[in-house]
Write a structure and sequence with these properties.
Blueprint: E1 16-20, H1 32-40, E2 46-53, E3 59-61, H2 82-86, H3 114-120, E4 125-130, H4 137-147, E5 154-157, H5 161-170, E6 175-176, H6 180-191, E7 204-208, E8 210-211, E9 214-215, H7 219-227, E10 231-235, H8 240-249, E11 253-256, H9 259-268
Parallel strand pairs: 1-2, 1-11, 2-4, 4-5, 5-6, 7-10, 10-11
Antiparallel strand pairs: 2-3, 8-9
Helix pairs in contact: 8-9
Length: about 270
């Protein structure tokens, strides 16, 4: 895969080890213990995460709109202040064994701000999705990245095209991944044997391996990605055999909830001489 010229990719080469929400099958997702495990134990190169805006305008690292799945709180995240969110137990529901044990419950695992995350992992790349379509969230996001000196270490974007377009407008020099409709246009045109639309705003295709039973990432797609100087990361792959196939095909990066398994697969690969 040719190397996109964006500074984000400096020193990186396929296939990237990307920990999805820090590795959500090994530790409470989107928490500092998960991210620390991914970096220190499994030497992840990219931490994938999500951000939401609190009621008092702070960006916190969290996936869902609501609190109930991952914490002992309830209701919409956006209805709470940062101080209220910090009192919640973000390890409350994590279980590695189907509910028999909850090893992180009551262990002081809390929600983190984006600023705290960036400061904790200065040398690590991030893939950050802005989740809600809140007016001005792109400006708050830009301010945090700029003040923390993280603009070149973050690939950013949103599933929502409206938010992705605003992010690209506010941060034109950042590395952006394709939002949903623009990504679909690229992939569907390749599958139809046509040239994909040229869109210089977006560099990275963060995409699922399958749509239903259809495998979306194949030789023709990766050729098109190469030809347009783009990069392709595939989510969320937890099966070692699928990981091995993607590495052989030369995919740019693999996002996984099992960073332990991906590390094992990548360590099997012959080292360049």
């Amino acid at each position: 895969m040719p190397h996109p010229r964006h500074p984000y990719f400096r020193g990186l080469s396929p296939t990237l080890h990307i920990s999805h929400r820090g590795g959500s099958l090994l530790a409470p997702e989107n928490t500092l213990p998960a991210f620390r495990m991914a970096v220190e134990r499994y030497h992840t190169q990219v931490l994938e995460t999500d951000v939401h805006l609190t009621r008092d305008g702070e960006l916190v690292v969290f996936h869902d709109d609501t609190l109930g799945r991952c914490t002992n709180g309830e209701g919409p995240l956006a209805a709470h202040t940062l101080a209220e969110l910090k009192r919640l137990d973000a390890g409350y529901h994590f279980t590695p064994d189907g509910g028999r044990t909850f090893p992180f419950r009551g262990q002081g695992v809390h929600l983190s701000t984006l600023r705290e995350l960036l400061r904790a992992f200065r040398g690590v790349r991030f893939n950050i999705e802005v989740k809600p379509d809140v007016p001005g969230i792109e400006d708050v996001f830009f301010q945090v990245l700029r003040e923390e000196g993280a603009l070149e270490q973050a690939c950013i974007g949103s599933e929502l095209d409206t938010v992705g377009e605003r992010l690209a407008r506010v941060m034109p020099d950042a590395c952006h991944f394709y939002p949903r409709d623009a990504l679909a246009a690229f992939v569907l045109s390749v599958r139809a044997g046509e040239q994909p639309p040229e869109d210089r705003r977006y560099t990275v295709l963060d995409m699922p391996l399958y749509f239903g039973d259809v495998r979306l990432v194949d030789e023709s797609l990766l050729r098109a990605v190469d030809a347009h100087d783009k990069w392709c990361n595939v989510w969320t792959v937890d099966n070692p055999e699928e990981m091995r196939g993607l590495v052989t095909e030369g995919v740019g990066g693999i996002m996984t909830d099992r960073p332990d398994l991906l590390r094992r697969v990548l360590d099997e690969q012959p080292k360049p001489r």
